[in-house]
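Retro notes (design track)

What went well: tokenization of the new backbones is finally stable.
What didn't: we kept losing track of which sequence belonged to which structure.
Fix going forward: every design gets posted as structure first, then sequence, in one message. First example under the new rule, 321 residues:
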């Protein structure tokens, strides 16, 4: 990877700066400048399906329009040895000088109110150990990590004790990346424009430790337009100013090409959005959810499980029908 070189004067200056300046993590180098573009995972679910089904009439479109685009890889309780899984993935990206996108999704009782993606670590202690290994496996290599989709969007079915446990785990997780992954930018998930008002979300983000993260992520696995998310993200960042800082944000554009129709679980007629890039109404537009992977046993994904790749859904999402 490309590593920045600090002169002696700059190094001395950096050592004199306060640990937190307007909520920005100190000493975390820009992972974008250290790499030559986003990593394309050759083993993603659409890539694997296209390779296994070369004679299928949908394979060429899925390969070109989805599999060859940079997307995030998700890590959770299905990943086995998390240190080995994350280390191998980040190492593969580092070997080709690309920036990997990772999603950590293993909070105990994750998706507590939605229900389709339940599961996660078996205890608070197990999660703390898991996320520590996750961060340690990245080490000094550059990476982008989105932390725990669904975690701050819906507290309606949780007790105050459960909420306190959750934000505590998130805050400690942010601290692990801050101390163990010096070239990683971490974004706490902040739901989407249709979930929680900006003032409430800013409070939740602050309590969950966003001051020590790079920023927050919007629209993960959802369909709101980039413009809607940009407006909401700016409102959330402005609301954070009451705590003494603002934050940049990223938007999941993997499935928002046609916007949303009021449904979140495998709605029909959705379309892929702008591929991963810098700028575009946020710090970055990123494909965080893999187009074609199911949200659960619902909608056009009836009979499937969350995360299962559905080639027909992927194919229709390319063309928006």
């Amino acid at each position: 990877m490309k590593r920045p070189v600090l002169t002696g004067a700059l190094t001395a200056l950096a050592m004199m700066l306060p640990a937190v300046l307007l909520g920005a993590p100190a000493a975390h180098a820009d992972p974008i400048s250290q790499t030559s573009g986003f990593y394309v995972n050759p083993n993603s679910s659409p890539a694997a399906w296209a390779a296994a089904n070369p004679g299928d009439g949908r394979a060429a479109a899925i390969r070109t329009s989805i599999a060859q685009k940079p997307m995030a890889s998700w890590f959770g309780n299905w990943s086995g040895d998390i240190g080995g899984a994350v280390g191998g993935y980040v190492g593969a990206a580092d070997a080709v000088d690309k920036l990997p996108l990772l999603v950590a999704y293993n909070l105990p009782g994750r998706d507590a109110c939605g229900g389709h993606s339940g599961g996660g670590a078996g205890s608070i202690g197990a999660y703390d150990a898991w996320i520590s290994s996750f961060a340690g496996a990245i080490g000094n290599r550059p990476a982008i990590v989105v932390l725990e989709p669904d975690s701050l969007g819906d507290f309606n079915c949780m007790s105050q004790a459960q909420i306190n446990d959750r934000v505590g785990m998130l805050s400690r997780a942010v601290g692990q990346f801050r101390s163990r992954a010096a070239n990683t930018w971490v974004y706490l998930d902040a739901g989407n424009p249709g979930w929680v008002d900006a003032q409430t979300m800013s409070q939740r983000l602050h309590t969950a430790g966003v001051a020590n993260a790079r920023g927050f992520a919007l629209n993960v696995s959802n369909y709101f337009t980039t413009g809607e998310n940009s407006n909401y993200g700016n409102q959330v960042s402005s609301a954070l100013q009451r705590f003494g800082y603002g934050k940049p944000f990223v938007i999941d554009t993997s499935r928002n090409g046609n916007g949303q129709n009021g449904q979140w679980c495998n709605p029909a007629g959705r379309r892929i959005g702008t591929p991963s890039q810098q700028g575009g109404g946020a710090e970055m537009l990123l494909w965080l959810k893999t187009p074609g992977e199911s949200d659960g046993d619902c909608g056009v994904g009836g009979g499937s499980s969350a995360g299962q790749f559905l080639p027909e859904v992927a194919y229709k999402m390319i063309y928006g029908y």
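Added context from the reviewer: Strands lie at 20-21, 24-25, 73-75, 101-104, 143-147, 184-189, 215-218, 249-252, 277-278, 284-286.
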